[in-house]
Amino acid sequence: MHDLLRELRAIVEHERALHGDLLPVPPAEDATEAAPSPSPDAPPTETDTPSHAAPDDAGSDPDMPNYDLFGNQVDPAEDPSLPPPERIEALIPDDAPYKDADTLEEVEQYFADNVLVPIDEDRENPVFGVGDPEADLVIIGEAPGRNEDEEGEPFVGRAGQLLDKILDAINFEREDVYITNILKSRPPRNRNPKSEEIDAHLPVLYKQIALLRPKIILTVGKVAGNTLLDRSSSLSNLRDQEHDFYGIPLMATYHPAALLRNSQWKRPTWEDVKLLRTRYDQLTNEG
């Protein structure tokens, strides 16, 4: 259509040159084609720049929202061009008092001093996390148990002892990694976490991960894996593969407590952690 209109316009212009202004000039395809070119010496007018065009320094403000090619605002958490810590930070509510914290100690102190949900009132000790704050591997479980609540440290009971053995089997010391849980307070009688408890504690975990900046995450147990991946799957469907957690590789396997009850899961867990070690070595050797 564009070529046809251009040819028609050329014919009419030719006829006007021969016979005068007897024929109307067909309208241009758009306003920009019909508008005369401005003089090089003429000052710019408001119409020289489209009203929707961004100023030259629009990209220099880090607080400016990001937009895709179609003009839709991009959720920072879903923007793969951002580094993982920034994407994960975007998941934390803006009114969270710990959102701008610079250290794990600040976040831990906030959590220890505040009650976010009723189980925080009943705890003996908050169970924030333990390990190397510069660890490349973060291990995340579901919630503290009785032993963890007593000592204020995750994975210190029989399940924790088994986790230490699993780590040792793939050449990790407990001090080499960082260990935490979705919930930082023990649910009564070790029941499954409630949705409101997860909603209250999960942003705290997001802040931990953003500050830790791990290269890979291992979740143990179905609740931990499904919570971080926002899924509702069986553990058999979560394990034996790598998932993406806002730019960080994530793997899932069985909780050590489950292995104490079901020995048939020890072999698949061994396969999972060997795969984890291989991927860890790849990631840490890249830099």
Automatic annotation (TrEMBL):
Disordered as annotated region, ranges: 20-85
Catalysed reactions listed for this entry: Hydrolyzes single-stranded DNA or mismatched double-stranded DNA and polynucleotides, releasing free uracil
Pfam families linked: UDG (PF03167)
Enzyme class: hydrolase
Leader peptide range in chain numbering: none
Uracil-DNA glycosylase-like domain span: 128-274
Alphabetized UniProt keyword annotations: 4Fe-4S, DNA damage, DNA repair, Hydrolase, Iron, Iron-sulfur, Metal-binding, Nucleotidyltransferase, Transferase
Molecular-function annotations in GO: 4 iron, 4 sulfur cluster binding; metal ion binding; nucleotidyltransferase activity; uracil DNA N-glycosylase activity
EC number per UniProt: 3.2.2.27
One example of a Gene Ontology biological process annotation: DNA repair
Family indicated by similarity: Belongs to the uracil-DNA glycosylase (UDG) superfamily. Type 4 (UDGa) family.
NCBIfam families named among the record's database cross-references: UDG_fam4 (TIGR00758)
Full protein name: Type-4 uracil-DNA glycosylase
